[in-house]
Amino acid sequence: MNNIIVLPLIVPIITGILLVFLREQIKLQRIISLLTLLFIAGVSAVLLNLVYTNGIMRLDFSGWAPPFGILFVADSFAVLLVLTASIVTAICLIYAFSTIGHRHERMFFYPFVMFLIAGVNGSFLTGDIFNLFVCFEVMLLASYALIALGGEKVQLRESLKYVLINVVASWMFLVALAYLYGTVKTLNMAHIAQRVAEVGQEPLLTVVALIFLLVFALKAGLLLFFWLPGSYSVPPTAIQAIFAALLTKVGIYALFRTFTLMFPLQADVTHTIIGIMAGLTIIAGCMGALAGRDIRSIASYNVIIGVGFILVGLSIGTEEAMAGAVYYLIHDMVAKALLFLIIGTMVLLTGEIVVKNMSGLIRNYPLFGWLYFLTMCALVGIPPLSGFIGKVLIGQGAIETGSYVLLALGFGSSVIVLYSLLRIFLASFFGETLISEEDKKPIPRSALVSFVLFAICIVVLGVGAEGIAKYVNDAAHTLMNPSVYIDAILTTDP
Amino acid sequence: MESLMIVLVGILVAVATYLVLSRSVLRVIMGTAILSHAVHLLLLTVGGLKKGSVPILGQAAAPYTDALPQALILTAIVISFAVTAFLLVLAYRMYLMNGSDDFQELGGSPDE
Q1: CB B46 to CB A179 under 8 A?
Q2: Which H or E run includes A204?
Q3: Does residue A367 have a pLDDT over 80?
Q4: CA-only gyration radius of chain B, Å
Q5: A435 vs A312: which has the higher pLDDT
Q6: What are phi and psi of A353, to 5 degrees?
Q7: How close does chain A come to B90, measured CA to CA in Å?
Q8: What span, in angstroms and rounded, lies between the C-alpha atoms of A4 and A16?
Q9: Pick from A138, A43, A125, A28: which is nearest to A86 by CA?
Q10: Which residues have a Cβ under 8 Å from the Cβ of B49 and sit 6 or more positions away?
Q11: pLDDT per residue over A160-198, tens digit each?
Q12: Distance of alpha carbon A430 from its chain centroid, rounded?
C-alpha cells in the first residue's frame, strides 16, 4: 500500500521516456501528458487523505529499514505541495497546447515538463538529504533544457548564466552535505535531526546549516535573486508560469525542512538571519516592482516579494505562522502561475512589453481583463480569495512573537503589490483601445479555459479554506513538532 | 593522508575559483568542472579514507570501510558529467548565436 508514495516520481519519468518515442504524434503527446498529471493529482489527493487518517507514511526502498536505505516520506506538507504542483502544471499545459507552437512540441517540450515534475515531486517526497540533491538536479537539468528550448539569442545568453549559477549552488550543496556527513555520519533527514538533537547544535553544525541556508536561498530567490528576473523572462509563457509556480517553491520547501526538522535548535542565529533575509527580500522585491516599466519584470519581482513573505512565516516559527506559510505557499503557486500566464498573453496580444504602450485591453477582451483583476485581488489578499488566510495567519504569528518589523514589511508589501499590479490594470486595460476590431487577435480558447480553471482554484482555495484547513494544520503541526516526523521514520515496524 | 587530500582540495578550489572569475565562457566552464572534482574529493576525505576491507559481511567479517561516500561520489560524478556536457553544448550554441564568448559582451541591452 505504501508503494503509492513513489508514483508521483516514477509515473512522470516513465511517461516522459514514452513521449520521447512519440515525437511526431503531437495530439497523443498532449493527451498522455495531461492524463499523467491528472493521475498524479488524483494519487496525491488519495495520499493526502491516507496521511491524514494514518499519520506519516514512508516507503523504504528494497526494504532497507531507516536509517540505512533511501526512503520516501509522505507527510501532509509534502503531499499538499505535490498535489498543488500537479494541478498547476496540468493547467499550464492546457495553456501550452494552444500557444507553445509545434516547433517546441516537436522538440520534446512535454517530456521535459514530465522530467521537471518528477524532480519537483521527488524533492518534496524524499526523506534522505542526498536524494534531495539528486532530485534537485533532475529538476534543474529539465529546467535548463526548458529555458534554452527555442534557441534564441537572449534565451541562450540568459540560460548560460542560469546554468552557471545553479552549478555553483549545487557545488555548495555538496560541500554542505560533505561536512554534514562528516559530522553526523548519516544522510537520513530524520536521523540527522535525532543526532543533531543528541549532540546539541554545536557551532560546526550551525555553519553547515548556514551553508544550506545559502544554497536554498539561491534556489528559492531569497535575497540572492539576481538571476531570477533575467532567466524567468526569456522562455515562452507556459514555461515561465511553470517555473514561477514550482522552481522557487522547491527551494522554499527545502528551507522549511532544513530549519524546522534538522537544525531548529539555534533559532536565535539561523531564524534571525532568515528573518533579516526575508525582510530585505521583500524590500528589494518591492523596489523592483515599483521601478519596472516592463510587465514581465514587474511579474518577476512579484515572485520575489512572495518568497520573502512566505519565509517571514518560517522565521516567526509559531504553529499559526507555519500554517499561514503553508497556506500562502499553496496560494502563491496557483496565483503566480495565473499572473504569468496573463502577463504572457498580454504580451502575445499586443506585441508590447512596456506598460505604457498598451491600452484599453478590457474593451476587446472583457473576461480576460476581469480575470486579471481577480488575480490581483488574490495576490493582494482581499478576503474571499486565496491569499487572505495565509496573510492573516502569518500576521497573527508575528504579533504573538512581537516581530513587528517583519509584520510591517509583510503587510506593507501588499500595498506595493497592489500598486504595481493596479498600475498595469489602469494603464493597460483601461483607456482608449489601441487595437482596432480588424486587428484584434482572438485569445485561443484553451488559454481562456486555463485562466478560468486557475480562477476557480483561487476562489475555491479562498472560500473552501475550511476544507483544506485540517490538512494545513496537520502540516503545520508536523513542522513545529519534529518528533512526530522522527518517530514516524525511525520506529521500525513492518 | 587526510591532510594531504585536504590541501589538494584547497588547491583545486583555488584554481577553480580563479577560472570561474575569468571573462571567457570556456574557462568558467572548466572552473565549474574542477570545482565539482574538488568537492568529490572532499566528500571522500570527510567520509573517512580507506581503513578496512571491502564492505562484504560474512561469518568472519573484518572491520570494513564505509561504502557510502563512494556511492555518493559516484552519483555526484555522473551528475557533474551531465551538467558539464550540457554546459559545453549550450556555450557552443550561445557562441554561434551571439558571436562572443566574453561575459563582458553578454550583458544584454535594455531594449530586448
Answers
A1: yes
A2: helix A203-220
A3: yes
A4: 20
A5: A312
A6: -120, -10
A7: 7
A8: 19
A9: A43
A10: B1, B2, B5
A11: 989 999 999 999 999 999 999 999 989 999 999 999 999
A12: 32
pLDDT at A293: 84
Dump strand ranges (E) for chain B. none
DSSP for A396-461, written as a single string: HHHHHHT-HHHHHHHHHHHHHHHHHHHHHIIIIISSS--S-TTTPPPPPHHHHHHHHHHHHHHHHH
User: So what's the ipTM on this one?
Assistant: 0.92
Percent pLDDT > 90 in chain A is 72
Mean predicted confidence (pLDDT) in A57-84: 90
Task: Determine the residue of chain B that is closest to A296 in CA distance.
Answer: B112
Cell digits of residue A357: 504602450
Query: DSSP label at B62?
Result: P
Which residues does chain A have within 8 Å of residue B68's beta carbon, measured at their own beta carbons? 181, 187
Residue A492 clears pLDDT 70, i.e. is over it: no
CA dihedral A222, A326, A315, A170 (to 10 degrees): -40
Helix, strand, coil shares, percent, chain A, to 5: 80, 5, 15
Q: Using 50, 70 and 90 to split pLDDT, how confident is the model at B1?
A: confident
Round the CA-based radius of gyration of chain A to a whole number and report it.
Answer: 22
Compare CB distances from B28 to A133, A164, A177 and report the shortest one's residue: A164
The pLDDT, as a whole number, for residue A215 is 95
- Helix/strand/coil for B56: coil
E strand or H helix that includes residue A59: strand A57-60
Residue type, position B26, single letter: L
Are the CB atoms for A251 and A220 separated by under 8 Å? yes
- Find cell 561504502 and name the residue: B67
How far CA A352 is from CA of A156, A296, A297, A475, B46, in Å, comes to 22, 11, 13, 43, 54
Chain A contacts to B (CB-CB under 8 A): 130, 133-134, 137, 141, 144-145, 148, 151-154, 156-161, 163-164, 167-168, 170-171, 174-175, 177-179, 181-182, 187, 230
A490 confidence band (pLDDT: 50, 70, 90) = confident
Bridge partners for B64 per DSSP = B53
Confidence at A494, pLDDT banded by 50, 70, 90: very low
pTM value is: 0.94
**Identity of the residue numbered A101:** G
Between CA A385 and CA A400 the distance in angstroms is: 25
* DSSP strand pairing (A71-74 vs A57-60): antiparallel
Q: What is the pLDDT of residues B54-112, one digit of tens each?
A: 777 777 777 778 888 889 999 999 999 999 999 999 999 999 988 888 888 887 665 55
Distances in Å between the Cα of A321 and the Cα atoms of A171, A311, A407, A476 are 32, 10, 11, 8
Alpha carbon distance A363, A360 (integer Å): 6
In this structure, what DSSP letter does residue A128 have? B
Q: Which amino acid is at B49?
A: L
